[in-house]
């Protein structure tokens, strides 16, 4: 009796998990809203974490008058990091701003996001001047100047020496 043995060779495939870790990807959907005289709310969506939790964000502002990117705020509060929005203060009134961001994890700082749309802070001074100004001379009294100041309904009286 003869035993024919046949050798069968099967390839062995091994899957080794491979995780690439590094600085985070860029945040997305940067939006500036609710501008005040000296502030605006900046919101975003988290980008790729690249294997590590994002611990903070760096927000840069672009002032259209100075035409340069500068640090606006470092977002380190865990609540702001988790909710993906924060209030940026220290802005100039009646000025246009754009914002961009970088995410930070234990491996470093990621690349900058695309910039937000332009947002204009509100004016710090009246945009209209007092109206209905008149002057007159009263007998045995100094000249009288009266008018309606900006956003007030009562008259304004200033005595002038004559």
TrEMBL record:
Keywords: Repeat, Signal
InterPro entries listed in its UniProt record: FN3_dom, FN3_sf, Ig-like_fold, Striated_Muscle_Regulatory
SMART domains: FN3
Span of the signal peptide: 1-21
Ranges of residues in domain Fibronectin type-III: 23-124
Keyword Signal: yes
Entries under Pfam families matching the protein: fn3
Organism superkingdom: Eukaryota
Protein name: CNTN3
Source organism (scientific name): Bugula neritina (Brown bryozoan)
Upper taxonomic lineage: Eukaryota, Metazoa, Spiralia, Lophotrochozoa, Bryozoa
């Amino acid at each position: 009796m003869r035993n024919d043995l046949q050798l069968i060779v099967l390839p062995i495939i091994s899957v080794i998990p491979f995780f690439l870790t590094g600085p985070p990807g860029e945040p997305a959907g940067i939006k500036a809203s609710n501008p005040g005289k000296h502030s605006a709310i900046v919101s975003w969506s988290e980008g790729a974490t690249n294997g590590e939790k994002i611990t903070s964000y760096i927000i840069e502002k672009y002032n259209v008058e100075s035409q340069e990117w500068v640090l606006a705020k470092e977002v380190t509060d865990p609540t702001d990091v988790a909710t993906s929005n924060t209030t940026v203060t220290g802005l100039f009134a009646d000025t246009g701003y754009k914002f961009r961001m970088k995410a930070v994890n234990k491996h470093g700082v990621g690349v900058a996001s695309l910039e937000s749309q332009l947002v204009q802070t509100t004016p710090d001074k009246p945009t209209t001047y007092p109206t209905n100004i008149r002057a007159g001379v009263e007998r045995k009294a100094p000249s009288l100047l009266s008018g309606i100041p900006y956003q007030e309904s009562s008259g304004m009286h200033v005595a002038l020496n004559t």
